[in-house]
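Researcher: We're reviewing a set of sequences before deciding which ones to prioritize for further study. For each one, I'd like a predicted 3D structure that I can look through quickly. This is aldehyde dehydrogenase (NAD(+)). If possible, include the structure in C-alpha cell form so it fits the rest of the review sheet.
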Amino acid sequence: MPLTDLMPTHSDILTACGLSEATTSAGSLNVYTPVDGSLIASLATHSVADAEAQIAAAKEAFKSWRLVPAPRRGELVRLLGEELRREKENLGRLVTLECGKIYQEGLGEVQEMIDICDFAVGLSRQLYGLTIASERPGHAMRETWHPMGTCGVITAFNFPVAPWCWNAALALVCGDPVIWKPSEKTPLTALAVQVICERVMADFGDDAPAGLIQTLVGERELGEALTASKDVALISATGSVPMGQAVARDMSTRLGRTILELGGNNAMIVAPSADLEMALRAIVFSAVGTAGQRCTTLRRLIVHEDIYDALIPRLVKAYQGLPIGDPLVDGSLVGPLIDTEAMTAMARALEQAKTEGGTVHGGGQALGDDFPNAAYVHPSIVEMPTQSAIMHHETFAPILYVVKYKDLDEAIALQNDVPQGLSSCIFSTDVRETETFLSAAGSDCGIANVNIGPSGAEIGGAFGGEKETGGGRESGSDAWKAYMRRQTNTINYSRELPLAQGIKFDI
Ligand code: UN1
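Model: Here's the predicted structure for aldehyde dehydrogenase (NAD(+)), in C-alpha cell form for your review sheet.
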C-alpha cells in the first residue's frame, strides 16, 4: 500500500480535533489549507453583538473567578496541560493543515502550550508580592497582586495556538477570564482548542464559571469590539506592526493596558571565531523554519569579511538541497507560505533587493504545477552590498539578506539599525565579543542569544522586544505581572497618625 493511503485525510484531521461537519460547513468564513490550497471549512462567524455578549459573560465570570484561590485556578491550567498532552498529535496535525508549518513544528507548537501550562501551574503558588520598610513607626507596607479583569488575546496565523496559551495560561492563574480573537486565516485551530477548554472546564467543576474561556471567530471588527470595551482590561496582541498600532491607538483612548508582540527583523552576527558548522545549522533552521514566517525568523546575516567566503557558498549549497513539500509528509523541511499573496510579497521584495544591488540565490515558486493554489517557494539568500531599504522591512517569507562587516562595532550598529527589536544573536567563541554583544552597548533587542539562532525561544524567558516590536513581554520570567493589578498597602497598627515626609498638619 502506498504510504499516502495511510495518511489521514483533511476531514480526518478536523474530526479528530472534535470539529464536526456541522461546524465546518456552518457559514461563510472560508478556510483554505496552505497544504494544497483547497477549501477545508466554511465557518459561521461571530457578530459584534456576539462579541459584546462574550465580554458581558466574561465580566460576570471575573466576579467569581478572581475569588477562586490561585492554586485552585492553577488546577484548571494543569488539567488543560494534561488534555493538551493527550491531544498533542491531533492538534499538531491540525496546526500543520491550517497554517502549513511542517508537522514537527506543529507538534513543537503544541509542546509550547504544554510547557507554559506547567509553568503557570507552578506560578499559581508563586504570585508573590513584597513587604516594604515603612518610614513611619507602627506602620507596615506591602505590595499585593490582584486579578486585573478580562484579557483579550489577538493572535496571528503563523503561530495559531501557542501565543494564545502563553497569554491564557498566565491570565487564568492570575484570575482573569480570556476572550480569544484568532487570525481569520486560522480559526479552526482556535475552535479545536476551545473544544478542549470546554472539556477541561466541565471536568474542573463549578468553580469554572461560564464565560471564563471564550473564542470569537471572524474579522477585524471583533478585535475592535474588544479594544473598544472598557470591560476588557487588557489586550495582548501578536501580529503586524499596523495591527499593533491600531490596537495601541484604540486602547490609549481609554488608557487600557496592552501587551504587544509585533514584527521582528532578526539578525545574526557571525564573527571570525565562530564555529561555522554550528552556525550553518542554526542559520538554516532559523531562516527557513516555518517557511520564514516566524516573528523570530532570521532575516539578516551580518558576516565578518574574513569568513564570508567560507560560509556563504556552503549556505547557498545547503539551501539547494532543502526538501520543500507537503508539510504533513515526514521529511519535508520547508512547507508552503500561508497563501499566494505572501508569495507575491516575497517576489516583490526580491525585485526590490535586486534594484538595490542584491544578488539573489534561490527564490521563486516551487512545486507550482502540482498545487496551483498553494504557495510553495524556494527559500532565498540575497547577498547585499549594504544594509539598504529592503533590509529594514520585515517580509514574512524565507528571504535571508547577507551583508559583510569589518569590526564588531560596525556589526552591532548594523544589527540595531532597523525599526524592529525582537530577537538577535551572535556566533562567536570570543568572550569579549559575546559579552559586548549582550552589554548595554550591544544588541537593542528583547532577545539576544549567543551561539544559537534567534528563533525557537523557550517559554521560561520573557518573550517580546523593543521599538516597533511593541515592547510587550509574554510567557516566562515575571511576564505574569502584566495580567494583574498591583496594589500598594500601608497599614497603621500604632495609636498615632504620623504623616509621611514628616509633614506637620495638626488640627
Ligand atoms: C511568533 O512567531 O509569533 O521563539 C512566535 C520562537 C517561538 C515563538 C515564535 N517560540 O520562535
